[in-house]
Protein backbone atom coordinates (compact mmCIF):
# COMPACT_ATOMS: atom_id res chain seq x y z
CA UNK A 1 0.00 0.00 0.00
CA UNK A 2 1.36 3.42 -0.99
CA UNK A 3 1.96 5.72 1.97
CA UNK A 4 1.25 9.20 0.65
CA UNK A 5 2.85 12.14 2.47
CA UNK A 6 1.87 15.73 1.74
CA UNK A 7 5.01 17.90 1.51
CA UNK A 8 4.11 21.58 1.51
CA UNK A 9 6.91 23.55 -0.10
CA UNK A 10 8.05 20.33 -1.76
CA UNK A 11 9.58 22.22 -4.70
CA UNK A 12 11.87 24.21 -2.40
CA UNK A 13 15.42 23.56 -1.26
CA UNK A 14 14.95 21.39 1.84
CA UNK A 15 11.50 20.19 0.81
CA UNK A 16 12.72 18.70 -2.48
CA UNK A 17 15.62 16.91 -0.80
CA UNK A 18 13.17 15.50 1.73
CA UNK A 19 10.91 14.27 -1.08
CA UNK A 20 13.85 12.22 -2.36
CA UNK A 21 14.55 10.85 1.13
CA UNK A 22 10.88 9.92 1.53
CA UNK A 23 10.83 8.07 -1.79
CA UNK A 24 13.95 6.13 -0.86
CA UNK A 25 12.19 5.00 2.33
CA UNK A 26 9.11 3.75 0.49
CA UNK A 27 6.87 6.78 0.98
CA UNK A 28 5.14 8.62 -1.87
CA UNK A 29 5.78 12.38 -1.52
CA UNK A 30 3.04 14.68 -2.81
CA UNK A 31 4.74 18.05 -3.37
CA UNK A 32 2.33 20.93 -2.76
CA UNK A 33 3.89 24.24 -3.83
CA UNK A 34 2.81 27.54 -5.36
CA UNK A 35 6.16 27.72 -7.24
CA UNK A 36 6.70 31.36 -6.32
CA UNK A 37 10.06 30.43 -4.79
CA UNK A 38 10.19 26.72 -5.48
CA UNK A 39 11.32 25.09 -8.71
CA UNK A 40 9.22 22.73 -10.80
CA UNK A 41 12.41 20.98 -11.93
CA UNK A 42 13.18 19.98 -8.30
CA UNK A 43 10.07 17.77 -8.11
CA UNK A 44 11.31 14.37 -9.28
CA UNK A 45 10.04 11.73 -6.84
CA UNK A 46 6.28 12.13 -6.89
CA UNK A 47 3.45 14.28 -8.20
CA UNK A 48 3.41 18.06 -8.00
CA UNK A 49 0.24 19.86 -6.98
CA UNK A 50 0.48 23.58 -7.75
CA UNK A 51 -1.42 25.15 -4.91
CA UNK A 52 -1.16 27.60 -2.04
CA UNK A 53 -1.20 26.73 1.66
CA UNK A 54 -3.35 29.82 2.11
CA UNK A 55 -6.15 28.07 0.20
CA UNK A 56 -7.86 25.57 2.49
CA UNK A 57 -10.04 24.17 -0.29
CA UNK A 58 -6.98 23.24 -2.37
CA UNK A 59 -5.40 21.63 0.66
CA UNK A 60 -8.47 19.55 1.47
CA UNK A 61 -8.88 18.44 -2.14
CA UNK A 62 -5.25 17.32 -2.27
CA UNK A 63 -5.42 15.50 1.06
CA UNK A 64 -8.60 13.68 0.02
CA UNK A 65 -7.50 12.94 -3.55
CA UNK A 66 -4.23 11.32 -2.50
CA UNK A 67 -5.48 9.82 0.78
CA UNK A 68 -2.61 11.53 2.59
CA UNK A 69 -1.55 9.97 5.89
CA UNK A 70 0.76 12.71 7.25
CA UNK A 71 2.11 16.18 6.45
CA UNK A 72 5.63 17.59 6.27
CA UNK A 73 5.23 21.37 6.34
CA UNK A 74 8.04 23.39 4.73
CA UNK A 75 6.07 26.09 2.89
CA UNK A 76 7.16 29.47 4.30
CA UNK A 77 8.91 32.71 3.53
CA UNK A 78 12.42 32.51 4.96
CA UNK A 79 14.45 35.71 4.48
CA UNK A 80 15.27 37.39 7.77
CA UNK A 81 15.97 40.85 6.32
CA UNK A 82 12.87 40.73 4.15
CA UNK A 83 10.77 39.82 7.18
CA UNK A 84 11.98 42.92 9.03
CA UNK A 85 10.89 45.13 6.14
CA UNK A 86 7.54 43.42 5.58
CA UNK A 87 6.40 41.68 8.78
CA UNK A 88 2.74 41.51 7.76
CA UNK A 89 3.61 39.42 4.72
CA UNK A 90 5.56 36.98 6.89
CA UNK A 91 2.92 36.59 9.56
CA UNK A 92 0.19 36.20 6.94
CA UNK A 93 2.14 33.64 4.92
CA UNK A 94 3.89 31.71 7.68
CA UNK A 95 1.32 31.86 10.49
CA UNK A 96 -2.13 32.45 8.97
CA UNK A 97 -1.52 29.98 6.14
CA UNK A 98 -0.37 27.36 8.63
CA UNK A 99 -3.69 27.80 10.45
CA UNK A 100 -5.38 26.90 7.14
CA UNK A 101 -3.25 23.78 6.94
CA UNK A 102 -3.97 22.76 10.53
CA UNK A 103 -7.70 23.28 10.03
CA UNK A 104 -7.63 21.25 6.80
CA UNK A 105 -5.83 18.47 8.67
CA UNK A 106 -8.39 18.53 11.48
CA UNK A 107 -11.27 18.48 9.02
CA UNK A 108 -9.87 15.48 7.15
CA UNK A 109 -8.76 13.53 10.21
CA UNK A 110 -5.01 13.89 9.70
CA UNK A 111 -3.14 13.75 13.00
CA UNK A 112 0.61 13.74 12.18
CA UNK A 113 2.68 16.79 11.27
CA UNK A 114 6.42 17.42 10.96
CA UNK A 115 7.01 21.17 11.00
CA UNK A 116 10.05 22.87 9.49
CA UNK A 117 11.14 25.30 12.19
CA UNK A 118 14.42 27.13 12.76
CA UNK A 119 17.09 28.04 15.27
CA UNK A 120 15.96 31.64 14.66
CA UNK A 121 13.39 31.04 17.41
CA UNK A 122 16.26 31.40 19.92
CA UNK A 123 17.37 34.86 18.76
CA UNK A 124 20.72 35.75 20.31
CA UNK A 125 21.20 33.19 23.08
CA UNK A 126 23.29 33.98 26.11
CA UNK A 127 25.04 30.61 26.04
CA UNK A 128 26.08 27.95 23.54
CA UNK A 129 25.60 25.18 22.68
CA UNK A 130 21.88 25.79 22.31
CA UNK A 131 19.51 23.12 23.64
CA UNK A 132 15.74 22.90 23.30
CA UNK A 133 15.47 24.30 26.84
CA UNK A 134 17.31 27.49 25.83
CA UNK A 135 14.86 30.42 26.13
CA UNK A 136 13.20 31.40 22.85
CA UNK A 137 13.52 35.08 22.00
CA UNK A 138 13.31 35.76 18.25
CA UNK A 139 14.85 38.96 16.90
CA UNK A 140 13.12 38.93 13.51
CA UNK A 141 9.54 38.51 12.26
CA UNK A 142 10.74 35.36 10.47
CA UNK A 143 11.87 33.75 13.72
CA UNK A 144 8.78 35.00 15.54
CA UNK A 145 6.48 33.56 12.84
CA UNK A 146 8.04 30.12 13.27
CA UNK A 147 7.77 30.32 17.04
CA UNK A 148 4.11 31.34 16.82
CA UNK A 149 3.41 28.22 14.79
CA UNK A 150 5.26 26.09 17.35
CA UNK A 151 3.12 27.63 20.09
CA UNK A 152 -0.08 26.77 18.19
CA UNK A 153 0.74 23.11 17.73
CA UNK A 154 0.08 21.91 21.32
CA UNK A 155 -3.31 23.63 21.28
CA UNK A 156 -4.26 21.79 18.08
CA UNK A 157 -2.98 18.65 19.76
CA UNK A 158 -5.32 19.22 22.69
CA UNK A 159 -8.30 20.07 20.50
CA UNK A 160 -7.86 17.68 17.57
CA UNK A 161 -5.41 14.99 18.64
CA UNK A 162 -2.59 16.38 16.49
CA UNK A 163 0.77 14.68 16.98
CA UNK A 164 3.64 16.86 15.88
CA UNK A 165 7.37 17.38 15.71
CA UNK A 166 9.03 20.79 15.18
CA UNK A 167 12.54 20.52 13.76
CA UNK A 168 14.65 23.55 14.65
CA UNK A 169 17.54 23.39 12.27
CA UNK A 170 20.62 25.47 12.14
CA UNK A 171 22.33 26.47 8.87
CA UNK A 172 21.18 24.27 6.00
CA UNK A 173 23.91 23.83 3.39
CA UNK A 174 25.19 21.62 0.60
CA UNK A 175 23.44 19.82 -2.25
CA UNK A 176 22.21 16.35 -3.08
CA UNK A 177 25.16 13.95 -2.95
CA UNK A 178 24.06 12.47 -6.32
CA UNK A 179 23.90 15.90 -7.93
CA UNK A 180 20.21 15.65 -8.83
CA UNK A 181 19.03 18.76 -6.96
CA UNK A 182 20.57 21.61 -5.02
CA UNK A 183 20.19 25.12 -3.71
CA UNK A 184 18.58 27.60 -6.12
CA UNK A 185 17.23 30.63 -4.29
CA UNK A 186 16.33 33.89 -6.00
CA UNK A 187 17.62 36.04 -4.50
CA UNK A 188 20.35 33.97 -2.91
CA UNK A 189 21.27 35.01 0.63
CA UNK A 190 23.19 32.03 2.00
CA UNK A 191 26.93 32.28 2.52
CA UNK A 192 28.12 29.08 0.82
CA UNK A 193 26.38 29.43 -2.57
CA UNK A 194 27.19 33.15 -2.64
CA UNK A 195 30.86 32.44 -1.98
CA UNK A 196 31.00 29.67 -4.59
CA UNK A 197 29.29 31.87 -7.16
CA UNK A 198 31.86 34.59 -6.46
CA UNK A 199 34.68 32.07 -6.93
CA UNK A 200 33.19 30.74 -10.18
CA UNK A 201 32.53 34.23 -11.52
CA UNK A 202 28.79 33.59 -11.76
CA UNK A 203 27.97 36.04 -8.98
CA UNK A 204 29.22 39.26 -7.42
CA UNK A 205 32.11 39.48 -4.98
CA UNK A 206 31.35 38.15 -1.53
CA UNK A 207 30.61 40.47 1.38
CA UNK A 208 31.89 39.40 4.80
CA UNK A 209 29.50 40.93 7.32
CA UNK A 210 31.58 41.49 10.43
CA UNK A 211 35.25 40.74 11.05
CA UNK A 212 35.40 41.90 14.68
CA UNK A 213 33.28 39.26 16.41
CA UNK A 214 34.63 37.69 19.62
CA UNK A 215 35.45 34.45 17.75
CA UNK A 216 38.77 32.78 16.92
CA UNK A 217 39.14 34.64 13.60
CA UNK A 218 36.75 37.57 14.04
CA UNK A 219 34.01 36.26 11.73
CA UNK A 220 30.66 34.81 12.70
CA UNK A 221 30.52 31.11 13.56
CA UNK A 222 27.58 28.92 12.57
CA UNK A 223 26.56 25.27 12.80
CA UNK A 224 26.23 24.05 9.18
CA UNK A 225 24.23 20.88 8.56
CA UNK A 226 24.00 19.18 5.18
CA UNK A 227 20.59 19.32 3.52
CA UNK A 228 20.62 15.53 3.00
CA UNK A 229 21.01 15.10 6.76
CA UNK A 230 18.09 17.46 7.35
CA UNK A 231 15.99 15.46 4.89
CA UNK A 232 16.83 12.26 6.73
CA UNK A 233 15.79 13.87 10.02
CA UNK A 234 12.33 14.65 8.62
CA UNK A 235 11.81 11.04 7.58
CA UNK A 236 12.98 9.88 11.01
CA UNK A 237 10.59 12.33 12.66
CA UNK A 238 7.75 10.95 10.58
CA UNK A 239 8.63 7.39 11.60
CA UNK A 240 8.93 8.55 15.21
CA UNK A 241 5.36 9.87 15.14
CA UNK A 242 4.08 6.70 13.42
CA UNK A 243 5.61 4.71 16.27
CA UNK A 244 3.79 6.79 18.88
CA UNK A 245 6.56 9.23 19.77
CA UNK A 246 5.69 12.18 21.99
CA UNK A 247 5.21 15.57 20.35
CA UNK A 248 7.93 18.16 20.79
CA UNK A 249 10.75 20.24 19.33
CA UNK A 250 14.17 18.96 18.26
CA UNK A 251 17.36 20.80 17.35
CA UNK A 252 19.20 19.66 14.22
CA UNK A 253 22.88 20.55 14.01
CA UNK A 254 26.37 19.10 14.04
CA UNK A 255 27.30 20.48 17.49
CA UNK A 256 30.34 22.22 16.04
CA UNK A 257 30.84 25.64 14.50
CA UNK A 258 32.51 26.89 11.34
CA UNK A 259 33.51 30.50 10.75
CA UNK A 260 32.99 32.50 7.60
CA UNK A 261 36.73 32.48 6.95
CA UNK A 262 36.91 28.69 7.37
CA UNK A 263 34.14 28.30 4.81
CA UNK A 264 35.95 30.62 2.43
CA UNK A 265 39.24 28.74 2.82
CA UNK A 266 37.55 25.44 1.93
CA UNK A 267 35.90 26.99 -1.13
CA UNK A 268 39.26 28.36 -2.29
CA UNK A 269 40.72 24.88 -1.87
CA UNK A 270 37.98 23.21 -3.90
CA UNK A 271 37.71 25.81 -6.65
CA UNK A 272 41.48 26.53 -6.83
CA UNK A 273 40.74 30.11 -7.84
CA UNK A 274 40.67 33.44 -6.05
CA UNK A 275 37.59 34.23 -4.02
CA UNK A 276 36.94 37.97 -4.16
CA UNK A 277 35.57 39.26 -0.89
CA UNK A 278 34.91 42.61 0.73
CA UNK A 279 34.83 43.20 4.46
CA UNK A 280 31.65 44.93 5.59
CA UNK A 281 30.19 45.99 8.95
CA UNK A 282 28.20 43.55 11.04
CA UNK A 283 24.54 43.16 10.21
CA UNK A 284 22.18 44.18 13.01
CA UNK A 285 21.01 41.20 15.03
CA UNK A 286 23.62 38.71 13.77
CA UNK A 287 24.87 36.70 16.79
CA UNK A 288 28.59 35.94 16.87
CA UNK A 289 28.16 32.24 17.62
CA UNK A 290 25.35 29.71 17.05
CA UNK A 291 26.00 26.02 17.76
CA UNK A 292 23.40 23.33 18.40
CA UNK A 293 23.02 20.81 21.14
CA UNK A 294 21.34 18.01 19.16
CA UNK A 295 21.40 15.31 21.86
CA UNK A 296 17.61 15.03 21.91
CA UNK A 297 17.45 14.22 18.18
CA UNK A 298 20.27 11.70 18.63
CA UNK A 299 18.47 9.96 21.48
CA UNK A 300 14.81 10.01 20.39
CA UNK A 301 15.01 10.15 16.59
CA UNK A 302 18.17 8.08 16.21
CA UNK A 303 19.48 10.88 13.99
CA UNK A 304 23.10 11.79 13.44
CA UNK A 305 24.50 13.82 10.55
CA UNK A 306 26.40 11.71 8.01
CA UNK A 307 27.20 14.27 5.30
CA UNK A 308 27.82 17.43 7.34
CA UNK A 309 31.60 17.55 7.33
CA UNK A 310 32.98 20.72 5.73
CA UNK A 311 34.45 18.94 2.70
CA UNK A 312 31.15 17.26 1.76
CA UNK A 313 29.07 20.37 2.33
CA UNK A 314 31.30 22.57 0.20
CA UNK A 315 32.09 19.85 -2.34
CA UNK A 316 28.45 19.04 -3.13
CA UNK A 317 27.49 22.71 -3.22
CA UNK A 318 30.42 23.52 -5.50
CA UNK A 319 29.54 20.70 -7.91
CA UNK A 320 25.94 21.90 -8.05
CA UNK A 321 26.90 25.53 -8.74
CA UNK A 322 29.53 24.55 -11.33
CA UNK A 323 27.02 22.36 -13.17
CA UNK A 324 24.57 25.27 -13.27
CA UNK A 325 27.25 27.44 -14.87
CA UNK A 326 28.06 24.72 -17.42
CA UNK A 327 24.37 24.28 -18.24
CA UNK A 328 23.96 28.00 -18.93
CA UNK A 329 27.11 28.01 -21.09
CA UNK A 330 25.77 25.08 -23.14
CA UNK A 331 22.50 26.81 -23.96
Quick recap of the structure?
With 331 residues, this protein is α/β, with parallel strands linked by helices. The protein has helices spanning 13-24, 56-66, 80-85, 87-108, 141-160, 191-200, 227-242, 260-271, 295-301, 310-330, and strands at 3-8, 27-33, 48-50, 70-73, 112-118, 163-169, 171-173, 206-209, 221-222, 224-226, 248-252, 258-259, 277-280.
Labels describing this entry:
alpha/beta; 7-stranded parallel beta sheet; two-stranded parallel sheet; 17% strand
Distance between the termini: 42 Å
Principal-axis shape equals globular
Main sheet attributes: strand count, strand direction, barrel closure: 7 strands, parallel
Compute the number of helices. Answer: 10
Roughly what is the average pLDDT, rounded to an integer? 95
Percent in strands: 15-25%
Number of strands: 13
Strand order of the largest sheet: 3-2-1-4-5-6-11
Q: pLDDT below 50 for ≥5 consecutive residues: which ranges?
A: none
Helix percent reads 40-55%
Which class of secondary structure composition applies to the elements? Answer: alpha/beta
Order of secondary-structure elements: EHEEHEHHEHEEHEEEHEEHEHH
Radius of gyration: 19 Å
Q: Strands, helices and their partners?
A:
Blueprint: E1 3-8, H1 13-24, E2 27-33, E3 48-50, H2 56-66, E4 70-73, H3 80-85, H4 87-108, E5 112-118, H5 141-160, E6 163-169, E7 171-173, H6 191-200, E8 206-209, E9 221-222, E10 224-226, H7 227-242, E11 248-252, E12 258-259, H8 260-271, E13 277-280, H9 295-301, H10 310-330
Parallel strand pairs: 1-2, 1-4, 2-3, 4-5, 5-6, 6-11, 7-10, 8-13
Antiparallel strand pairs: 9-12
Amino acid sequence: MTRNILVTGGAGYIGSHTCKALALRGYQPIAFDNLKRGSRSAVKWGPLVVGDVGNRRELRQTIERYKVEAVLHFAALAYVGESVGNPAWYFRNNVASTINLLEAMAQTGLDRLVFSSTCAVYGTPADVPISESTPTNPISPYGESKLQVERMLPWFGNAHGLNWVALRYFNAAGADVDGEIGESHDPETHLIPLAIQAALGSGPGLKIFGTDYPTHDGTAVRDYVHVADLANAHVRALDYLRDGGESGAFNLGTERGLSVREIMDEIRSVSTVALPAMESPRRAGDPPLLIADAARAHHLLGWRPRHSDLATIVGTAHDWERNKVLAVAAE
